[in-house]
Every structure is written in C-alpha cells, then in structure tokens.
Amino acid sequence: MIGNIGLLSRHVLAALLGSVIAFERERLNWAAGSRTHMLVCVGSSLIMLVSAFGFADVLGEKNVVLDPSRVAAQVVSGIGFLGAGSILLRGEIVRGLTTAASLLSVAGIGLAVGGGMCTAAIGATIIILVGVKPLERRFISVKQQRNITLLVKRGNVSLDSVHNALGTGSVRVKQFIVQQSEDDPELDEVQIGLSRATASEFATICARLAAMSGVRECRDGR
What we know:
Elements: H1 4-27, H2 34-53, H3 68-86, E1 88-90, E2 93-95, H4 97-114, H5 118-139, E3 146-153, H6 159-166, E4 173-180, E5 187-194, H7 199-210, E6 215-220
Antiparallel strand pairs: 1-2, 3-5, 3-6, 4-5
Helix pairs in contact: 1-2, 1-4, 1-5, 2-3, 2-4, 3-4, 4-5
C-alpha cells in the first residue's frame, strides 16, 4: 500500500496530463475541453488506485481472492459509453470521433498513472500531443479540408441542394453553416467545408456551386 502523498501525487499528475491534452482542444474551441479531460483522467486514476489498493484490508480473509484488473476494466466500458454519446451523425457529416478518441486516450493515461506507470503515461501524452501533428502535416496537408463561401438569396440553398449540385461520388461536405450576410439582410452567407480535394477537383466544385440557383457569389473560404 502506498502512502497518502503517493496517492495524491498520482492524482495531481493525472490532472496535469489530462489538462495538457485538453489545452490543444481548448485552443481550437473543440468540445470536451480542460474540465472534461481532467475529470476523466483523475477519475480513471482514482478507480485504478481503488482497484489496486482499496481492498487490501480484506485480502487476508479466508476464501477471498481479488483481481484488481476487473474494476479498472470497467473504465473502458464506461468511457466507451461516454464516447458513443459524443458522436453525432447528421446526414453524411460525422462529428465527435476525435472527442471520443481523446476521452478514451485520457482515460488510459489516468489508469496508467493510477497504476504507477507514470513513464508510460507521460510518454503517451507526449506522443498524442507531439507525434500526431507532424504526421498530419507531412502526409495529409496537401489534401486538407477545403472551404467555400457562398452568398445566396435567402432560403435558396440547403445541404440537400449542395449534395445534388456536387453529384454522387464527389467529395463529402464536412461542414455546412448558414448565417445572415452582414452586408445585405436579403442574402445568406453559406460556409461549406469539404473533405480532401485536389486543386482541379476544387475548381470543378466551385463552378458547380456557382451555377446553383440563387447563388450570387462563390469564393474560396480560406
């Protein structure tokens, strides 16, 4: 059994690592920010500590056999339930996958800290924060999401009409935001985020969208 200082130090480390991962999400204004990640990480650490040391006083009893991993394993099921609740499907647009994966990773880090595997927890945190971004920039940056902004007559463009204009087999619409134009109250400003597209595909898409009924202007949304 570790002492009280050891218990508290693991909770502090779990809170710190969870907050460090959450900082990136807060910076990008994504769901599940610092408080959620800290709660998940510290909660997982607490469950792991209870699983490992919480039943030490009854281990000496006759016919008592405990498996510390069974309690910790339930964290995976619980986080899976929480992560599934954060995933939303709206038409062809899926949101929340990164949030669910982030919560699962933070729960794993919390379990590692609670189990005393601090080096593994710190290493996982560094890999999540530092290791993924360079790979994304190296291999995916050439085909990252493209954005288009349309100025349209109010009510003339919807997500379905955009899908129809693009046609089957085209790139997917990942973001569709409609708001009133600041310059003309009779017009809507539609911001469309598209999945990966080459320069030639993007030019074709812009031409198709510009030809839609009610579209007054089509421009690159970068």
